[in-house]
Amino acid sequence: MSLNGKTAVITGSNSGIGLGVARELAKAGANVVLNSFTDRDEDHALAAEIATEFGVEARYIKADMSKGDECRALIEKAGVCDILVNNAGIQNVDPIDTFPTEKWDAIIAINMNSAFHTTAAALPLMRAAGWGRVVNIASAHGLTASPFKSAYVAAKHGVVGMTKVVALETAEEPITANAVCPGYVLTPLVEAQIPDTMKEYDMDRETVVRDVLLARQPSKEFATVEQLGGTCIFLCSDAAAQITGTTISVDGGWTAL
């Protein structure tokens, strides 16, 4: 499943799932464009490390995914976008009646609206190239719900719906659009939360992971960023040319319940 010669733009990719996906795509031969809202030396160093490790071209482009014009500018600055991975996202947990309005607006903008803007800008480039893949990193929360996550659940459901629309609009072209729906993924952010959760519940690490963090994940194992990257590679391969407008759950059975 070689992606040699393809260029992938991955939003929100200087850490966590986005970085993991970018690394896997680069390992498969794709040139990659990393992105986040910061513009630090270490952001550009990440791109340089990927380029050296995998022998591909890698760049970092700053763009704030809460701003539509910057989302579109990211694609314009990339210049080429054969593969678009919409990954950028944030979270906030509050009851809906006390959910901060500014948090709602930010989550909808970054988790959902950004995917609209980047896709709108990328499709003309894909059409000009005669090939394209849109992979939206949604969530198990794009298919089901949890209390206190109204904005996140609404945004991820929206991403799944928009994925289907893009697939229908490109159905007769060599372009596909699909959504990957992870459950809990072991990222540095999640790893950092485990010690505090252990203290809060007065539990050991294994019990916290199994009975608290993975309470809704029947496999009782985290998904990994490498597995998500592998799923993206498959969706970009010729084997998945007739897979479009659907969701692939990487959630240890969460949405089977």
UniProtKB/TrEMBL annotation:
GO biological process: monocarboxylic acid metabolic process
InterPro entries: 3-OHbutyrate_DH, NAD(P)-bd_dom_sf, Sc_DH/Rdtase_CS, SDR, SDR_fam
Range of residues in the leader sequence: none
Pfam families, per the entry: adh_short_C2
Origin superkingdom: Bacteria
Any GO molecular function: 3-hydroxybutyrate dehydrogenase activity
Matches recorded under PANTHER family: 3-OXOACYL-(ACYL-CARRIER-PROTEIN) REDUCTASE, 3-OXOACYL-[ACYL-CARRIER-PROTEIN] REDUCTASE FABG
Family label: Belongs to the short-chain dehydrogenases/reductases (SDR) family.
Name of the protein described by the UniProt record: 3-hydroxybutyrate dehydrogenase
